[in-house]
Design brief:
This protein is about 40% helix and about 25% strand. By secondary structure, it is an alpha/beta fold. A hairpin with a 2-residue loop joins β2 and β3. α3 packs across α4 and α7 runs antiparallel to α9. It is globular.
Length: about 300
């Protein structure tokens, strides 16, 4: 009997949601960088386990929003849980322990607040979730269990898994459990399909990942990538044109780099990965534009599946 359903993965920014999604699927469907808040809209990855198909909704991190774009991302994250058959709440145990032990950085303290926000959100919605304690590498078991006990006492969790999304420890057990919880029914996607992200959007996300990998220290989150043209060529190759938007003129040289070297690196790395994913030669053309109000434009929200009217 085949099974198929949706599993929403929620958590604070940088809890490891995209890494977990990619590991479960066995392919790259969501960008992963050292910057928090890189997933801006739910990405559906398709994982197979025996006769079960698990459609993974990798959501933006849930955090305290400050501007319209932030509110749209948080709305999108909670929206990803509404129709899910299972919710997995991923928690960074190392951030939790840092707070408990009094040596927390600002990011750890924010993560603790975000975890508490999610617990309250689950309680208010009358939902229960699987608690997945992530980043267990090198953490003492007693310390880890203390975190588990404190969180489990909130009453919003049905069960707990201890995992490392980076090296895969415990992830297969979680995958088997998700498969068991999927409702009986036909598969929703072909067996070989790993995501339902439109190719133009996937291309933009890959380029955005390369931007953050290269200029993560100098550039805050004031960058977006739009695929403006995607053309299939007669020789089987693809021509892709993209615009990189930054909010201030001072950020444009950061993306360009000296003599255009940074932009060249971004383009080369993005083109190589796109060529592998699309299994064809890719000709990629990048333009950098300054638009301080890109995050306030209705058409941009629609393109990435976010609600402008939040």
């Amino acid at each position: 009997m085949t099974r198929a359903g949706f599993a929403a993965i929620i958590g604070a920014p940088n809890a490891g949601k995209s890494t977990l999604t990619n590991y479960l699927v066995g392919a790259k469907v969501s960008i992963v960088t050292q910057k928090v808040q890189t997933t801006r809209f739910p990405v559906r990855g398709v994982a197979m386990s025996g006769e079960a198909q698990i459609v993974l909704v990798d959501t933006p991190g849930i955090f305290a929003p400050r501007r319209k774009f932030d509110r749209a991302m948080v709305r999108s994250a909670w929206g990803g849980t509404e129709d899910a058959d299972v919710i997995v709440h991923l928690v960074d145990v190392q951030a939790e322990l840092a707070v408990d032990q009094g040596d927390a950085k600002a990011a750890d303290k924010r993560a603790r607040i975000d975890v508490e926000t999610i617990i309250e959100g689950l309680r208010a919605a009358g939902k229960t979730a699987i608690l997945a304690i992530n980043k267990i590498d090198g953490v003492k078991r007693d310390s880890m269990l203390a975190v588990v006990q404190r969180l489990f006492e909130s009453g919003v969790y049905s069960e707990v898994f201890l995992i490392s999304a980076v090296d895969g420890s415990g992830v297969e057990d979680l995958k088997v459990r998700l498969a068991e919880l999927m409702p009986e029914g036909p598969w929703l996607y072909p067996e070989e399909q790993t995501a339902d992200l439109p190719v133009r959007l996937l291309a933009a996300e890959i380029t955005r990942e390369k931007i953050y990998l290269r200029v993560h220290e100098e550039l805050p989150y004031a960058a977006a990538v739009e695929t403006t043209a995607f053309t299939e060529k007669a020789d089987g190759s693809a021509r892709i044109e993209q615009t990189i938007y930054v909010e201030r003129e001072s950020q444009r040289p950061i993306v360009l780099g000296k003599n255009g070297q940074t932009l060249k690196w971004i383009g080369q790395k993005s083109r190589e990965e796109l060529g592998e994913l699309l299994d064809r030669p890719v000709h990629l053309f990048l333009t950098v534009k300054v638009d301080e109000r890109w995050a306030d434009k209705r058409e941009f929200y629609g393109d990435v599946g976010l609600d402008f009217d939040v």
